[in-house]
């Protein structure tokens, strides 16, 4: 985690921003919960444990800055709640999401569309820079109790 934090600190400095204690606390929460797709409010509640004086507006501004710098990505899964995850520099769309429509569980699966993406670019003379795929359905737990 410390290595990733140092990399982000360098990114911030390159864009003339400092890694303030509030930004660091927010980043630490994101890093500690990297697989969780937390909302801004969830991030705020966890950051508040590390930095009790922090305000919700500061967390929102930090998240906006990190999104603007393409360090994290703001995701919308159709439930009206924005969630956040780290971006991957080597492959901007490295996974897809499985969303349970009953309990809201969110899971990641690997990117399945590389061949299709190449075909679309070739056949339509179109440069794809990103794609987002979410599959809606029932997780194993909800499927077993659905009937």
TrEMBL record:
- Which family, according to the similarity comment? Belongs to the Fur family.
| Keyword match DNA-binding | yes
Q: Which CDD domains match?
A: Fur_like (cd07153)
What's the protein here called?
A: Transcriptional repressor
SUPFAM superfamilies, per this entry?
Winged helix' DNA-binding domain
What keywords tag this UniProt record? DNA-binding, Repressor, Transcription, Transcription regulation, Zinc
Query: ATP-binding among the record's keywords?
Result: no
Q: Which residues cross the membrane?
A: none
